[in-house]
From TrEMBL:
Gene3D superfamilies: Glycosidases. Keywords: Membrane, Signal, Transmembrane, Transmembrane helix. Pfam families: Alpha-amylase. Residues 85-94 have a biased composition (Low complexity). It comes from Glossina austeni (Savannah tsetse fly). This is Glycosyl hydrolase family 13 catalytic domain-containing protein. One of its GO terms (biological process) is carbohydrate metabolic process. The keyword Ribonucleoprotein does not apply. The chain crosses the membrane at residues 157-178. Residues 196-541 form the Glycosyl hydrolase family 13 catalytic domain. It comes from the Eukaryota. Residues 74-94 are annotated as: Disordered. InterPro entries: GH, GH13_cat_dom. The keyword Repeat does not apply.
Length: 636
């Protein structure tokens, strides 16, 4: 060995070598014809042949070789040591298994033995395997090591994928159910359209020639298709000779027998609510109630009214409201229990003690609450002082304003602009205007056959105004007053504007059957073609904040979104705008001649609405027919 320059010092490899390896045979025993070697990894067997020792990695199990019966020289002792030697700045490690003095019959070469794990105190199953299959585990191994991790991974993956699919389904459902538009909301009685009905002339259900509450219930589908939010039932209370003297009511809680009974009113209310339509009752006080009386519920701390102090109503603190027991409060409480959604208190301008009205308004609105509507007529405000009027407007939801479209475009434009800048001007939380063109005490818009188009033009103009619009029954089809050319119904001549409703000939249900005469003569022919325009206009209004909102409400200011102008003698222009929404303009010609004009100083172009096709229009040569209203969506 010294001749090869290799040291025989055992400390060089730090391996305890057995004595037989240190005392190697002669050179010819290991390597004939070459110098003898002391390489410790070469061994000899009994027949003199050279057999290389087996290298073993510390983590490599010793594998049995059934073909070699002399593998006992493979040193797989559990206590084998690994020595490291360094030379020229590098290091190498060699794991050498040194055989121990164990009997050859022992399982030295068990294929399940790992040199980095002791084979004593192991946990094995009946087959000698550890809990994880082939690896035996010591007793102090944590319990989670023995868990069924393949099953846990499968379950975790299943839960993860299920959660992912569930979240995706929720997101898809939310996207599908999202509204097409996101418009600002208002209270149901603000900015929407009401439909006023005189029940005796709307629909007959029992073929006695007179309309009734059950007949109104049969026409709910018509009201829903029209697009109205609420109906106003006027004159439903009992009178000595209903309906001829419907104004002379004898009770505010008893329904006229010709119209039905209390159960019919309950059924009508339930059916309307199921179709998302509210119901409002007109409460006529005159001439049934002549004085309001004192109001205990509206008494303030100062307990007096001093008209010399303009801000008295604004600075006074209101105590707890106590409802005064009288006919009006009893009426309101009674019908609220029946599900009525609001009241139009009529005839207040005729009461003798009008100065007590502000206190009573506090009571009435307190009874109704925020989700019910309280309406009074605009003429009542002129009977109050400034301080009384300002206070009254805080406890009323809608002010009914009648527009006389026959007074001329100049007067109409003046009145509209005056209202837009008055105490009833558009605001965020204040009173809103309730626009009316007709009613039970007004003449019909269609007064002769030549006014058919005028009714449509006026109604479309009304539906462009800021506030709440009220359509009197029949105006959507240009219903005219009853025709009595032979003067056979002279005793009801004052009621001819309340002609019975006309229904389409394609409708199997008419006002009454053919064998029964209605209580009023029929009106001349109507124009059902107008109905489609009214439906489209109401739908446009309901989805357009520029039209149904009465103002642009910002944090520090409230801006008007309506501009009313007059052009020529008979042209009325109403422009409606709203931030980040389409702007609209209506041009109404209430004259009897076609008009051509240049409006490029105001607008350039737009799309004509309410038609079946989108018609482009330019305002450089704008033409409008007589008694016509054109609605245009302005180009941005």
């Amino acid at each position: 060995m010294n001749t090869m320059g290799i040291s025989t010092d055992p400390a060089l490899l730090q391996v305890e070598l057995s004595q037989n390896l240190l005392e190697s045979p002669s050179v010819s025993t290991f390597m004939p014809e070459e110098e003898a070697s002391i390489y410790p990894l070469l061994s000899s067997n009994t027949n003199g042949t050279i057999t290389p020792l087996t290298f073993s990695h510390p983590l490599t199990p010793c594998i049995d070789n059934d073909n070699d019966s002399n593998m006992s020289t493979n040193l797989c002792n559990e206590d084998g040591k690994v020595e490291t030697s360094s030379s020229s700045g590098s290091s190498s490690g060699i794991g050498i298994s040194v055989p121990s003095d164990i009997d050859a019959s022992t399982t030295l070469f068990n294929k399940h033995s790992y040199k980095h794990l002791p084979n004593n105190n192991v946990i094995q199953d009946a087959n000698g395997h550890g809990p994880n299959g082939n690896i035996p585990l010591p007793k102090d191994t944590p319990s989670f090591v023995s868990w069924n991790w393949p099953l846990i991974r499968k379950c975790t993956f299943f839960v993860f994928m299920s959660s992912l699919l569930a979240m995706c389904a929720i997101v898809v459902a939310m996207i599908v159910t999202l509204p097409n538009v996101c418009n600002p909301k208002t209270v149901w009685y603000r900015g929407n359209v009401f439909y006023e009905i005189f029940p005796a002339s709307f629909q007959d259900s029992d073929n006695d020639g007179m309309g009734d509450l059950r007949g109104v219930a049969k026409r709910i589908d018509y009201l829903k298709a029209l697009g109205v939010t609420a109906i106003r039932l006027n004159s439903v209370f009992n009178s000595p000779h209903y309906p001829e003297d419907f104004e002379n009511v004898t009770s505010l809680k008893i329904i006229a027998p010709h119209l039905g009974h209390l159960d019919d009113m309950r059924q009508l209310t339930r059916m309307l609510h199921s179709h998302n339509i509210s119901i409002i009752l007109d409460v006529p006080l005159h001439p049934f109630i002549k004085k309001l009386g004192e109001s205990r519920g509206g008494v303030f701390i100062n307990n007096s009214i001093n008209d010399n102090v303009d801000n008295e109503y604004e600075t006074t603190v209101e105590p707890q409201i106590v409802v005064t027991e009288n006919l009006i409060t009893e009426c309101l409480q009674y019908w609220l229990e029946m599900g009525i959604d609001g009241f139009y208190i009529k005839g207040l301008e005729h009461v003798e003690d009008i100065e007590n009205l502000p206190y009573h308004l506090v009571e009435w609105k307190n009874l109704l609450g925020a989700d019910k509507v309280l309406i009074i007529e605009a003429g009542v405000l002129s009977k109050l002082s400034l301080s009384q009027r300002q206070f009254a407007l805080k406890h009323v939801d809608l002010i009914d304003v009648h527009l006389d479209v026959f007074a001329g475009t100049s007067q109409l434009e003046k009145k509209l602009n005056t209202l837009m800048h008055s105490e009833m001007r558009p605001s965020k939380t204040g009173v809103w205007i309730h626009w009316s063109l007709g009613g039970v005490d007004k003449m019909r818009l269609t007064r002769n056959q030549s006014n058919v188009d005028f009714t449509l033009a006026a109604t479309l103009m009304q539906l462009m105004l800021p506030g709440t619009c009220n359509i009197f029954y029949g105006d959507e089809i240009a219903l005219q007053a009853a025709s009595d050319s032979l003067n056979e119904h002279g005793e009801t001549k004052h009621l001819h504007h309340l002609a019975v409703m006309r229904w389409s000939f394609n409708d199997s249900l008419q006002f009454t059957n053919r064998e029964t005469l209605p209580w009023l003569p029929k009106s001349p022919d109507v124009d059902f073609h107008h109905l489609q325009y009214i439906k489209k206009m109401i739908a446009l209004r309901n989805r357009s904040p520029s039209i149904y909102k009465n103002a642009i409400c910002k944090t520090d200011a409230i801006l008007q979104n309506t501009a009313i102008r007059r052009s020529h003698d008979d042209i009325l222009v109403i422009e409606r705008v709203y931030p980040r929404r389409n702007s609209f303009v209506s041009i109404s010609n209430f004259g009897r001649k076609e008009v051509t004009m240049d409006m490029t100083s105001l607008y350039y172009s737009g799309i004509v609405m309410l038609n079946n096709s989108d018609q482009k229009i330019y305002f450089s040569d704008f033409k409008i027919n007589a008694q016509e209203t054109i609605i245009v969506r302005l180009d941005k």
